[in-house]
Each structure stands twice: as structure tokens, then as C-alpha cells.
Amino acid sequence: MGQFELPIESSFSAMDVDGGGISTASSLSSSVPPPSRRKKALYQFTQQSLPACKPVLTPAWVISTFLVLGVAFIPVGIVSLHASNSVVEIVERYDAECVPDAYKSNKVAYIKNGSISKNCTKLLKVDKLMKAPIYIYYQLDNYYQNHRRYVKSRSDKQLLDGLQNNDTSSCKPEESNGGLPVVPCGLVAWSLFNDSYIFTRGAVPLKVNRKNIAWKSDRDHKFGKRVYPFNFQNGSLIGGGKLDPHIPLSDQEDLIVWMRTAALPSFRKLYGRIEEDLHPSDLITVNLTNNYNTYSFGGAKKLVLSTSSWLGGKNDFLGVFYIFVGSSCIFISLVFLLLHLKDSRPCGDATFSYWNRKNVSL
Amino acid sequence: MKRYVYINEDESSHDLYRDNRISNRKYTTLNFLPKNLLEQFSRFMNQYFLLIACLQLWPLITPVNPASTWGPLIFIFAVSATKEAWDDYNRYLSDKKANEKRVWIVWNGIKKQIKAQDIHVGNIVWLRENDEVPCDLVLLGTSDPQGLCYVETSALDGETDLKTRVVPSACMGIDSELLHKIKGVIECPNPDKDIRRFDANLRLFPPFIDNDVCPLTIKNTILQTCYLRNTEWACGVAVYTGNETKLGMSRGIPEPKLTAMDAMIDKLTGAIFIFQIVVVMVLGVAGNVWKDTESRKIWYVEYPNEGPWYELLIIPLRFELLCSIMIPISIKVSLDLVKSLYAKFIDWDQKMIDDETGTASHAANTAISEDLGQVEYILTDKTGTLTENKMIFRRCCINGVFYGNDSGDAFKDVELLNAIEAGSTDVIRFLTIMAICNTVIPVQSKSGAISYKAQSQDEDALVHAAAKLHMVFVNRNSNILEIKFNSSSIQYELLETLEFTSDRKRMSVVVKDCRSGKIFLLSKGADEAILPYAFAGQQTRAFVEAVDQYAQMGLRTLCLAWRELMPDEYREWSLSFKEANSSLEDREWKLAEVCQRIERDLEVLGVTAIEDRLQDGVPETIETLRKAGINFWMLTGDKQNTAIQIALLCNFISPEPKGQLLLINGKTKDEVYRSLERVLLTMRITTSEPKDVAFVVDGWALEIALTHYRKAVTELAILSRTAICCRVTPSQKAQLVQLLKSCDYRTLAIGDGGNDVRMIQQADIGVGISGREGLQAARAADYSIGKFRFLKRLILVHGRYSYNRTAFLSQYSFYKSLVICFIQIFFSFISGVSGTSLFNSVSLMAYNVFYTSIPVLVSVLDKDLSEETVMQHPQILFYCQAGRLLNPSTFAGWFGRSLFHAVVVFIISIHAYAYEKSEMEEVSLVALSGCIWLQAFVMTLETNSFTILQHLAIWGNLAAFYIINWIFSAIPSSAMYTIMFRLCRDPSYWITIFLIIAAGMGPILALKYFRFTYRPSKINTLQQAERLGGPILSLGSIEPQPRSIERDVAPLSITQPKMRNPVYEPLLSDSPNSTRRSFGPGTPFDFFQPQSRLSASYSRNCKDN
Fold it and tell me: What family does the database annotate (chain B) (predicted)?
């Protein structure tokens, strides 16, 4: 964004000047010129006379700035839009359809009833060629992972150090169970997403890579390698998914992904990767277990298969906004150009008058 | 209530009245902490921050670490408490020094030395020459056989001349040994602060005198802090002691000054606070509603069904804390910091160093520099402030011959020297009058050099001049005056002194030549008091012309005259003089009449011209500042004529026909009222005319007007741009300042003497000139400068820049806090209105304390216009005076900008980082980076001049932001671990940031450019002219431009005369257009009578109470 730097159009202000100049001039000339550079700089600082450039908003400069901005932004917008468009994604909402007809009127009862099988099958049709790797996300809508009560209810120390860390007060209300501490504690871990998906193309099972879905840094430094789930989901209230108590937290990648709380109430989290291309007209069957309760608060669950570009997933926002800003800039520069041509007043054409501050009245 | 002081009877008054311990301290060791804290917490901002800090201690609601508020808070409080403590300690030290000074008192008839603090009412205090008076005393005896003593009262009223004080008649002639045993009672009023009044009675007990009551006046007292001069010893009885002395009563602790800008910032803070409360209430209610309707359904939040009793309060309080950054705590620290830097700039300024004395300017009060830029009224002392207070005899006219006209210096005029050499009788007589017609006391030091103690600077100048012209006044030995002329000694016997009064405007002495026995009357006085009494045959035209000529040059003139008296005539007159002198009723009037009888048929010898030189650059300074829209009032203890004279000389008032002087006078209520009404009428009519109207008022009329017609005076003060107040007392000066302040004007008082101290303390800004009358004023003042002309630079350069910079800094501080706060508020709408903070504690604290505070500090180097341009176009100060750069509407602009930027940052970051990217820490850091980048560009756009430091601060700060975040991102335990690295590798981060910058700054740049080019303010126009080398505007061709001035500002199209006649026109000649334009002929018009001869006269005599 070098365009923003204002060009140096002006003189360096002269060091001395006193409008009065009656006898003050002598004080300056009489003062010995400071010898060293540092002293000179200090002197200039104390006299507030450091050399300065004083940019001024000239029409030429402003108009060309907007023009350059516009010219630069529109291509960037087009490129971004193109990147976004090159991403192929399949979004399938399944939370409503996976409820058996009998429970359509009372979905909450369905999800809370442990005896009913939660299995559900979905068919996904591939429209365009999807190049590997294809990312599998689950998307939750209207889910407030950023709620204050929720965000704060975790203990990063415990995740790293496990039971050595006794202070789980920050994990309220899921800090302990039956007098014993819970690992991992807190609402975030407790509400772990636990739907699962199995993909088959035609009759052949699609291999889904569930490794390395979490950030490496989290696995290495945020979640303990020797910390095992303990006393987790043992209480009267079961939140979300359970964890295998024999796998250390650093390998519980679903948990790690889940614990990276989202800032928006609508978010996608990585489930896995398909590492082969999907071709148009491929029919993919998803066998999913619909365990997670989004019914009680009116949320939505979606399964997302998406390729990726250099800009990330499918998101037109940047491209569209770039084009909008770019064209606005060109528009503004044209308006200013017209204004300038119509009414090109010479700069500094000023006439002065005397001002009086207060209106004279009582 | 009265107090009875029993002389020499310690016990009776010991417990009744306090001892002489002086205390100027504000605190004691014990009450320091509570009192100081109480004082600090009386400011709204501090209360607010304390409340926030306390709330943050509650972990349930705090979004961030409490230390982020407590740290700065404690720091701020510690700094200001330390400063207070240091000041108070210094006061204690100076008090201690005064209290422990040794003084002699008489106790039980024995002289002994005690500490000054142990003096009690009723003690007899013994003073020697040059001693400082420790408390208020009533004189009992002096070394002088006539019971006189001389005191210097400069510390009390700023007048440097010596005053005579006299022993009460009852004590006259008591032997010094007997004085030790004197007993009596003084009945005096309770302590008050009137230094001109002391109405008391003295009754001595037998055996001294029978029980006659002897009246006492101020002439019988010597007051605290005066010095005894030219008197071997004096003794008196203590009547008021300690802080109850006249000085102590009038001292008063000066109130801390608050600038208009601080007041405005406080006001805006209040507005923001109200806004905050509204936001908090709305969000709090919304949060609670959301919680009850939605959150209970959200199983993963596990809201308990039954909360504690305070549950309803939790969410509002959370929002309160979340929004508490709306009022930036850093603003106080930043402001204090830049303010002390402004003060330092004043101290450092090489162009405000007085070359003669080498004194640099000094800002004692570091907090009020912005006010300098908002000054509307300057109240100035005359003598010593505008003038150098150095009277020098320059010219004279003896018998129609002008001396000193060629060289401007009579001492160098060969003709005069020749005439003295030749012994011309007229010249000799002239010199004799100069030498002895006065009340000067020659003091011969051991080395033989003679110095003079004069009550009036004019007399001093004349005596010195005479001495220089070989007529040396050597000695005043009781009644024998001895002068030396060319090594021959001449002695005169002083028969009578006809004292100066302001009515008579002359003084005379009657002397007898000791050799010839002839008796002479020697007179000197104002021309109008001397010339009419010339003897019938004398042609006075030459003298009239001389006086005219001198007056036009701004010289103070005196006419000298003499007459030989026949012994019979003298004897006869002498009797009536003595009679008048001892009369009890109407003594002054009777004396004047008697004097009149002998002061006639004078032979006028000549005219002297004395110069009280204006300081360098005074007229230019006043002209520039008046152009800048600052109104000048001159408050002087001097005479009216002299004041007007000086006012004319220094551009204070314009000469005819531009200027017009209106006189308010009168001795009674009615007279004053009538004249006040007339002046007001004229003022109201002439406001529409391009005229410089000034009113002139003297102390007496002012007193009446201020007591009885305050409203009218207030109106007058608003209407009048210029005023001359003569013969005013220190307290009246302060009252006038108060009056202007009550009309909501920003006042600056400038003076040099002790008599200006109260005015200086009272005014919004006090400026002291470290001058001839000592350092009193300079010490009491907020700023001290060496010369009056530095005022221009102080106001136009330092004041203006300070104002501009603070205006920017304070609004910017709010802007940046609001941006982050708005983002938090927006975020709360997508986080279930639960009060989640998008940013983590570290970011929030660093944002307020570091990222955004450092760059803005270098705005203290910003200069919107160069110094030369400001000096050339002082009108530009108007923007500061009218508060154009910091007011609710500019603030609304910044508020809108912050809202806009918050929207841009928020919308773009949540949309660009949606779905799979919507990780909390990442979104938070994207939004934060967006803010930081925007801040950098806002700073860039709002900076007018870039020095290397600004570039460093703005771009260096941006770099520092990334470096700091990289560091945090490298710490595994931090919440931000790896986030910044992740973002910086991600192209979409940079694309997002550029989008934020372009979308955020584009409209602002466009708006600014549009305003700058098509709706330019005067500042913009000057900037364009200055930087693009536009035509240098000459002020001579100024035309009023009505469009440019907002409605609330009435354009007063006063145009300064471009050229001024080399010789000033006499003020108020009878030009018809000036006087009768607005009034019909015959309208009673209290116009200052045409004074073709603005004679200056010696005025100092009259100051003596």
C-alpha cells in the first residue's frame, strides 16, 4: 500500500523565524551553531524546528491515488473471486431429515432417547470434478461457541498438564464429577461434537484421513501427550461425545479441533480429508450417526465437502468487496476529476478577514 | 468586632490571639494522604476509573485482567500525589525560614532576640535599618526626631518607591529608653486584607500621657514584609500576627487552574459516559432477555435455572467493564505527558530568551499551555510591563530654546553643556529646580557616591539628570538642602514643601538661599497646572509648543517655574499655610487654596521631557495580538493621561479618526451611573462601525461602578475590545479579571510587580515579567517571560500549537478507544449478548497503552502551519479562541469515524474469516491488525508535518505491533501461540487487511480532500499557500469575507490602518465625524475632552496612600 504514503511535496521548513524579529534574530545568530549532529538534532527538537515534510492534498495526487487504488483493486477482486469460484463444495444439511417421521414433531425427545438408533444415510451427488484433497467439514449454525459462559469454561493448563493441575475453578460448571476432577474439564470439552460419517463411493468405501486435522502446534504444545481423559462424561448429564481414556489428549484430534472455539455462531470444523479426486456424477453415500443435539436450540448441522484454493474455501466476500471498493475508488477519482476541471481554483487563493469571536449581545 | 491590643502586656493577649507563625501549607503530615486522595477523587474521571478498577476485581464479570486498570491508576495517583507533596514541602521550608528568623523585641522592658514565630500581639518589635517587618506593627518610635521612617512596600503592593510612615502624635517625642516601658491600649478592627486602611485608636496609660484617645491611620503602621529603609531604627507594637496580618489575609491559596480545553474534555468525557451507560443498559437488557429466551435452551451453556440474587446485574456489569475502555485511561497520562512537553518547549525556546538579562522563559504551571491559544482578553499592567520602568531625562526646553532635539539626548547637546559652562542664569535656575524641588533623599555611601531615594521615578530621573549636568544634590540635612554646582557648594534652607496632590498636579518648595537670604518659590508640575499661573507678561506659547511636541513623542513632560518671594509676603503666607496645615476639617482643600495663593505670577523656566521607554517590540506585539482577535485591557496604577499616552504609543488604541475614547468618571453614584449609561449607549451604536472604541475609567469610578452597577459594567466589558483603567488597586485588578471571567472569557493577566500578583493568580493564565520590580509577579505567575514582546510568541506559537495538538490528541484518544469498543459491542451481538470479549487481555492492554498511545504522542511535534505563517496571519488564532478544533461537533466527527471504522473492520473480518476460518484468536487478531493499520493511516492523514520522529513513531509502531505479536505467537503458553505466524503466511490475511485499509480510509481521504479543496478553512487555505508557494498574502488588502464565517461569529470588519503617520495624531481632536456621528448635536456626550496636550506628569507621588 505504498500509494498511501504521502509524497514529499514541500520544502523543509527553515530553521529560524520569528515574525516579530525585532531583536530576537540576534539571539539566534549569536547562539553558536551546535557542533555535532546529535546536538544539532537535539537543538532542533527543543526549538521544534526539526526538518519536516509537509504533504498537501493536491488534486493531482488525490485523484491519481484513487485511480491507482481502483485499478489495483479490481484485478485483485477478480482473481479472488476466481479463486473462490474454483472451489467446489457440497453442502448437505441433515439434522432435520435424519429424524424419523415419528419424531418429527418432537425432535428433542428423539435425540435424547438413547435407545433409538441414530444412524442415517445421505446421498451426495458430485456435480463438478473435485480434486484431492477434499476437506470434510461439519458445519453448525446458530451454535454459540463464543458465548461467554462457554468460552471461559476450560482450563488450558489442565489440557497440557492433566491432573497435576488441580485448579479447575475456571471450568465451572463442568469442573468435577462425584468429587473427582474431570479431564478435560469445562463446557467446551464436555459438549464435544460426536456425529460421525462414513463415506462410500458407489460400493467402494472412500478412505477418509482423520489424521492431522488439528493444528500441529496444538497437538505439540497445547494438549498434553501424557494427559489421558479421566472421569469424562461420567456425570448425570451427558453433553456430547465421549473420549477413549487410553488415548492421550494430544492424539484426540477431534477434541483439539473442537476446542479451537469459533468466533461466529455459524462455523465449520474439519472432520477429515478425502485424498482422492471425486468425479462428476459420482454418487457418494454417507452413513452418519446423528448423535449431536442441535434440536433443542434450533441449530442446524451440515456436512460439507469442499476443495480448497490459495485463498481458502469458497468465500465470495473478498472478491466482491474488492471489486466494489475498486470501482468506488475509480468513481470517486472521476468525480474529483470532474470537480477539479469544472472549478479549478488556484491553491492558496485566500482572502482574509477579521474575526471576532462572540456575537455582541447581552 | 474589635480587638484590643495591650502594649507590652504579654499575658493578656497571649491566649486570645495567635502567635506569629506563618503557614502557607496545604497539608499536614497526617492529613496528607486522605486530603490528597479526596482532592484527586473529586475529579469525575478518577472516580470513574476507580469504580471500574473495583468492578474488575470481581472475576465473574471481568473480561480482562484487573491489573490492566489498577496499574495505570495507581501510577497516575502516585505521580500527582508526589508532586503535591513536594510543593507542600517547599512551602513548609520557606515558611520555616521566615518563622525562624531572629527579631528583636522588648519584653518586660528588656530587649531580647527571639524567633519571628514567637512574636505575640502586644509585643514591641524593634527594627533596624533594612530589616524586614515580621508582622503588622503600629509605630511607636523611630530614630528620626520628627518621628518619621521610610519603608519599602514592594512586596505588599509592588511599588518600589519609599513611603514615609509617622509615629502617632501621642508617642511623638518619647525618649527611646522610655519606649521600652510604654503601656497603653490600641483599639483596632479585626484582621482584614485592606492594605490602605487602618482605623484604630491608641490610648497610652499614665505616666506617658493622660487618657487622650489618639486616632491611628495606615500612615502609623508598618506592615508585614515591608522593609525599613533610611531609618536607623524603628519600633512598633504588634497588632496583627502570623496569617492574620494584612498580607496574610489577602494571600489566599491560588486555586488550581483548569484549562478551557480540560473542561471541554471533561464535558465530552461526560457525554461519552452517558453514551456508555445507555449502551450498557440497552445491551444489559438485551443480554438478560436473550439469556432468558435463548440461553436456557442452549444445553451446552448449562445455565442454572436458579441464579443468585444479583444475576440480573451480571450481564450489564460485564458490558460496563467491556465498554469501560470507551473512556481511555491513557488520555490522562498522555495529556500530562504532552503538557509537560509543551512547557518544556517554552522553557527551551531560544527565541524567548531575554538578551539583556539572559533570562529564559519559564512555564511554572505545566498544565495550562492550551489556554494560551484560547486567550480572549489580555489584562496588562503598564509600568514595567509595557514600559521598561526606567525613567530617563531626554530633552528639555529652557526659555524657548530646545535642547536635545537633534540627538534625542539632552546630555549630549553641546549647546546645553555650553550654556551650563557659561553659567546662564536661566539654565542654572532650571537645574536648581530639577535638583531640589522634590522629596528625594540623597544617600551618601561611604565611598562618597551618592544615590537617591525617590518616591517618584520622575523626580529620580530629574535629580539624576541634574547631577549629570553638574548640579549635584548632595545632602538633605533636616532643613538644609545642599547642592554642589561645579565644585561650589550651595545651601538652601527648606522652608515649606507644598506637596503634590492629584488635583493640584504640581508641587512646590519654598527655599531660602543661605548666602543671599532670598526666598524662592520653586514649582514643577503638569503644564496645565503651571502655565496658566505664569506672570502676566510672559509668553508661554513656546512652552505650549514644547509640551505638545514632547507629548507627541510620548515623553512625560513637566514644567518648571520659579518666583522670588518678598520676605513679608512669605511671612504672611507662611502663617496661613501653618493654619491650614493644622486645620482639622477640609484640610486638603484649605491647603490647596493656600498654596494657590502663592503659586502665582510664576516665571516659567522651561519644560523637561522624561522618557519611560516602551519595551522593544511592544507596539508590534500588541498590534499582532489585537489582529489575532485578542482584546487588551490596560490596568494601571498610573494617572489617566500617562496611561492614555502609553496606550496610544503602543497601538493599544488607535488615534483619531479610527479610535475613540470614552471616559467614565464621576465622584458620586449618580455621576458614575450617568456616565456609564452614556458610554454604553455609544458602545452599542458604534459596535457596527469599524471603529476602535475604548473606554477609560479610573479607580474611584470603577469602585462605584463595580459595587453598584455590576451589570452595566459587565455589558461594557463584553462590548469593549479595549479598556484603560487608571489608578486601580491590586484588588480592583483582580476584580476586573473576575468580571471578565464571569462573562466566560479566557483571560490572561500580565504584570511585573507585586501589585499584579493577585490579578495574575486570578486570571486563567498569569504571566509575569521578570523585571525591574523584582520577581514577585514572575513567581506567582504560570509563565514568566523576560520581555513583553515574547507574549506574541508565547500565545501565537506555543499556545496555538499546544491547543491544536491537544485537540488532536484528546479526540484521537477517544477515537481509538471507541473503535475497539464498538467492535466489542458488535461482537456481542453475534456472541449471544453474553459479554464475551473478542480481544484477549494482552491485546486490549497493549492496544490502549502501547500500540495507539505512542504514535499519538509524537503529535506534539506536529505543526499545521509554520511559525512564520502564523505570525503573519495572527487571525488564524481565531480557530483556537473559538475552540474550533475541539468541540462537540468535531468530536462527533471523530465519533462517527470510529463507528465507521469499527463497522468496516468488523464486517470485513467476520466475513473474510467465516466458516472454517472462524477461529476465535485468528478473527480477533485480524480485527486488531485492521484497527492498528487504520490507526496508522489516520495518524498519517491527520499529521500536518512529518519529522523523522513521526515517521518513526507511526511506521515503527506498526512494525512493533507485528514484532510484539510474533513474540507472543512464539510463546507456547500464550493464547496467541502461532496465530500471528499463521496469519502472516496466509495471503487472505493480507488481502483482508488491504481491504480494511482501503474501505476504511478511502471515504475519509475523499472527505478530507473535498473539505480541504472546496470547503477550506482558513487554516487549509494558509496551508495551501504556504506549501505550494502561493501568493504571499499581504494583510493590507484584507477584505471582509462574510461567507467564511459561521453564523455565531459576527464579522467585525475592523481594518487596521495600514500606514501609521510617523507622528501620531493627537487623540480625539475635535473632528466632527468622530464624535457626533451617532449622536445628535447637543446630546450630552461625555467625551473625553480633546487633549491636544497629553501631558505626562509625575504620578508616583500620589501613590503614597
Answer: Belongs to the cation transport ATPase (P-type) (TC 3.A.3) family. Type IV subfamily.
ipTM of the complex: 0.87
Q: What is the mean pLDDT of chain B?
A: 81
Please identify every residue of B annotated as catalytic. 381
Asked if pLDDT for residue B411 goes beyond 50, the answer is: yes
Q: Which three cell numbers stand for residue B202?
A: 491608641
pLDDT at B227 over 90: no
User: Domain B359-384+618-790 has what CATH class?
Assistant: alpha beta
Question: CA B354 to CA B502: how far, in whole Å?
Answer: 36
B443-to-B126, B131, B153, B230 alpha-carbon distances in Å: 23, 18, 19, 8
How many angstroms separate the CA atoms of A181 and B333, rounded? 46
Q: Is A288 on the interface with B (CB under 8 A)?
A: no
Question: Which amino acid, one-letter code, is at B230?
Answer: N
CATH of B119-244, one of 3.30.1780.10, 2.70.150.10, 2.40.50.100, 3.40.50.2300: 2.70.150.10
Candidates B60, B681, B871, B916, partner chain A, best to mutate (most A CBs within 10 A): B916
Report the distance separating Cα B891 and Cα B266, nearest Å: 13
How many other CB atoms sit within 10 Å of the CB of residue B792?
26
Q: Which three cell numbers stand for residue A239?
A: 453433553
Chain B contact for A357 (CB, 8 A cutoff): yes
- Chain B CB contacts of A353 below 8 Å: 875, 1038-1042, 1044-1045, 1051, 1053
The answer to whether residues A297 and A142 touch, using CB atoms and an 8 Å cutoff, is: yes
Superfamily of domain B392-613: Calcium-transporting ATPase, cytoplasmic domain N (3.40.1110.10)
pLDDT in tens, B799-829: 999 999 999 999 999 999 999 999 999 999 9
Contact A325 B1002 (CB under 8 A): yes
Residues 6+ apart with CB under 8 A from B757: B158, B730, B751, B776, B777, B780
**Structural domain spans, chain B:** 119-244, 265-327, 331-343+797-1016, 359-384+618-790, 392-613
pLDDT in tens, B835-886: 888 998 888 888 877 888 888 888 888 988 888 888 888 988 888 888 888 9
Task: Tell me the chain B residues in contact with residue A65 when contact means C-beta distances shorter than 8 Å.
Answer: 1005
Q: What is the pTM of this model?
A: 0.79
B874: left (phi over 0), alpha (psi -120 to 50) or beta: alpha
| Choice between A60 and A12, residue whose per-residue pLDDT is larger | A60
Helix (H) or strand (E) holding B452: strand B450-453
Question: What's residue B211's pLDDT?
Answer: 60
Longest CA–CA span in chain A (Å) reads 101
Distances in whole angstroms, Cα of residue B265 to Cα of each of B46, B274, B353, B849 = 14, 14, 33, 19
Q: In angstroms, what separates the C-alpha of A139 from chain B's closest C-alpha? A: 8
Chain B residues with beta carbon closer than 8 angstroms to that of A145: 920
How does strand B722-726 pair with strand B631-635?
Answer: parallel
Supply B287's cell numbers: 443480554
Mean pLDDT, rounded, for B556-566: 88
